[in-house]
User: Which sequence fits this backbone?
């Protein structure tokens, strides 16, 4: 069975290639919808193991590594691309769908890659395809954000490639396997993975770029890049302790930034960092419980975070507003109750309310931290849960659907169109899944890489969770009158390259340019003088020497024992007046002839005398 | 409005009280001393929420918040 079946994700690439030439919108839509279905159907019939190997140089590329870890990620990636396609059925921008298929296909390629070359290949396609989901928004801001996104991911790809090359140099292997952590190769590879997982301080591309994507594209962006990074971390770096602390810190970091953000999708983007923090922390702990937690949270998160992005996308699609400051007090609860319901389901899920799917996965990571006796990490994850509920579960919906007008003078009602039917369907499917997995956790637990010995619905667990959530709600209600929203942005570590870039530009166009011009002027003066001197080759050596004297005289005139500048100038003037006369120093022809005859005679003499 | 407040308070009290009661045989794993405190999660949620909101508003916001056109200038 080796090497003779096509990897199932090939459908995505074939679909992306064919889409532009398929006639008719209906057929296009059907073909696009068929892509994830066909991939899923093929995947179901595949045996576990590594196959589809290709010889490459002296190595073997492994295009398919099918085991429980890769399959669970593949399932949710395929499922989400199916939901995305439904959500985006109304869009007329065909290129976005092509980019989305390439993005999905390459994320699956990363998931199944059994070696670093294949991984790197799809890793780069992922970056290149996803940036179009940002650029198709066609605003100046999104074009700029897209460029920054691309640059960061290319830099991350370079880190990964450097690590891969180091690994080849030291281990002579491109196999993508969990290895002992340590050594320069693993540091570089980990750094490359951490860029995509948005681990601080390598994270700012995420809240910078995701809110700039198209309404539909942002849904997909929230799924693939970070979660495929979580997958590769699970595969290669389980149990690396530094990830525990980075993960726990980023979980809190994300919610704090989410709390002061007013752009809905930017708020959610900060919150992705927080959620991925839980997963990274789980990977770092590396026990079976924690890894199961990280994988199940990735699975659950893709559903509810996708749904959150879908609902906020629907609001933007319908009202054209993206900021809470513009939406607060516009009475959206009356005009968009359907979106509110969907949002509530997603918000309950992400806040880990019992009966929603966050409850069956997030506590698994927290319990993993407890089981492995990382008390501080456990408390940090707890506080991040509090922040999650406040910022995503309470603040965002309160100001988006209810709230009081922030700018009372702008009293015009927001232009409420209608949510496209396909968007509603996509949201409903996702919301259904969020509840279904919450009620029937075994459907997800069966797919996890290790046997699950975790029971979310225990008395103590439910009571403690509800106690925490309700008292957070109480605190929020008390604090609510003091919350004020402002149309401002918040600096992040992207400050270094965004402001740094203009500093670099200023340095290059200012001092560097002045230096260059100065040098050029000086050198061209010297060249001019040399040309001037050589108008008469016979006086040239003297003129050059006078030039040196003039240089010294003009530079060090104040010192004693240097040539007198006026005298040198006069001599130069004098000497340069001597015209070039080709005949002036020419010897008579006879001398040359005599010399040659003489040498010939000597030569003949030597020859004969030998 | 008053009824809602009373109901909310009632729910809070009931949920907080439930944490003091442990039904027989309900396994609850304890790894740290704070997990033994009844009502710890409720207190943690309440105080943590204030702490987070104040930290965001009083520390992070004044330090890092800028005008919207900050990067375009």
Assistant:
């Amino acid at each position: 069975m080796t090497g003779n079946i096509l990897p199932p994700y090939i459908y995505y690439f074939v679909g992306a290639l064919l889409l532009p030439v398929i006639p008719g919108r209906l057929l296009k839509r059907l073909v696009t919808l068929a892509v994830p279905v066909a991939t899923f159907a093929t995947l179901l019939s595949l045996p576990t193991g590594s196959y589809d190997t290709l010889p490459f140089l002296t190595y073997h590329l492994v295009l398919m590594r099918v085991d429980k870890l890769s399959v669970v990620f593949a399932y949710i990636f395929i499922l989400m691309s199916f939901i995305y396609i439904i959500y985006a059925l109304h869009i007329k921008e065909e290129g976005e769908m092509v980019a989305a298929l390439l993005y999905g296909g390459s994320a699956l390629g990363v998931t199944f890659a059994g070696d670093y070359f294949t991984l790197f290949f799809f890793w780069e396609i992922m970056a290149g395809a996803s940036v179009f989901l940002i650029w198709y928004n066609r605003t100046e801001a999104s074009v700029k954000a897209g460029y920054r996104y691309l640059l960061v991911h290319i830099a991350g790809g370079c880190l990964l490639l450097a690590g891969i090359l180091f690994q080849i140099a030291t281990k002579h292997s491109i196999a993508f396997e969990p290895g002992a952590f340590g050594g320069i190769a693993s540091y570089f590879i980990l750094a490359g993975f951490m860029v995509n997982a948005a681990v601080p301080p390598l994270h700012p591309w995420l809240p910078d770029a995701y809110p700039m994507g198209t309404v539909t594209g942002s849904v997909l962006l929230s799924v693939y890049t970070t979660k495929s990074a979580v997958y590769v971390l699970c595969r290669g770096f389980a149990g690396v302790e530094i990830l525990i602390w980075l993960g726990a810190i980023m979980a809190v970091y994300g919610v704090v930034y989410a709390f002061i953000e007013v752009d809905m999708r930017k708020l959610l983007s900060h919150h992705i960092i927080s959620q991925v923090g839980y997963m990274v922390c789980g990977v770092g702990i590396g026990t079976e419980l924690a890894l199961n937690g990280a994988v199940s949270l990735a699975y659950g998160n893709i559903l509810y975070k996708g749904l959150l992005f879908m609902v906020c996308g629907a609001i933007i699609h319908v009202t054209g507003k993206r900021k809470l400051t513009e939406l607060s007090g516009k009475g959206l609860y009356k005009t968009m109750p359907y979106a509110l319901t969907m949002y509530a389901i997603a918000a309950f899920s992400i806040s880990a309310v019992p009966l929603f799917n966050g409850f069956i996965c997030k506590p698994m990571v927290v319990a993993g931290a407890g089981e492995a006796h990382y008390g501080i990490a456990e408390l940090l994850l707890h506080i991040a849960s509090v922040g999650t509920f406040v910022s995503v579960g309470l603040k965002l919906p309160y100001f988006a659907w209810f709230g009081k007008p922030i700018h009372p003078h702008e009293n015009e009602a927001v232009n409420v169109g209608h949510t496209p039917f396909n968007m509603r369907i996509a949201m409903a499917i996702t919301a259904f899944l969020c509840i279904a997995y919450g009620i029937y956790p075994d459907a997800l637990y069966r797919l996890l890489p290790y046997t699950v010995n975790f029971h979310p619905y225990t008395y103590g667990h439910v009571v403690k969770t509800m106690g925490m959530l309700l008292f957070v709600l109480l605190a929020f209600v008390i604090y609510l009158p003091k919350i004020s929203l402002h149309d401002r942005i918040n600096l992040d570590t992207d400050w270094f390259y965004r402001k740094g870039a203009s500093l670099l530009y200023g340095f290059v166009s200012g001092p560097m340019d002045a230096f260059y011009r100065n040098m050029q002027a000086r050198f061209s003066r010297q060249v001019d003088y040399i040309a001037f001197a050589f108008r008469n080759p016979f006086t040239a050596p003297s003129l050059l020497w006078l030039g040196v004297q003039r240089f010294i005289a003009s530079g060090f005139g104040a010192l004693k024992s240097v040539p007198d500048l006026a005298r040198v100038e006069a001599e130069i003037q004098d000497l340069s007046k001597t015209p070039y006369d080709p005949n002036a120093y020419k010897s008579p022809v006879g001398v040359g002839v005599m010399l040659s005859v003489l040498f010939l005679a000597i030569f003949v003499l030597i020859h004969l005398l030998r | 409005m008053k009824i809602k407040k009373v109901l909310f308070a009632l729910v809070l009290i009931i949920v907080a009280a439930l944490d003091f009661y442990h039904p027989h045989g309900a396994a609850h794993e304890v790894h740290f001393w704070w997990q033994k405190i009844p009502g710890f999660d409720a207190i943690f949620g309440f105080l943590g929420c204030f702490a987070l909101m104040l930290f965001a508003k009083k520390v992070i916001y004044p330090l890092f918040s800028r005008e919207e056109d900050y990067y375009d200038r």
In short: Chain B has a mean pLDDT of 86. Residues 40-64 of chain B form the longest helix (25 residues). Chain B touches chain A at residues 8, 11-12, 15-16, 18-19, 22-23, 26-29, 31-32, 34-35, 39-53, 55-57, 60-61, 64-68, 70-71 (CB under 8 Å).
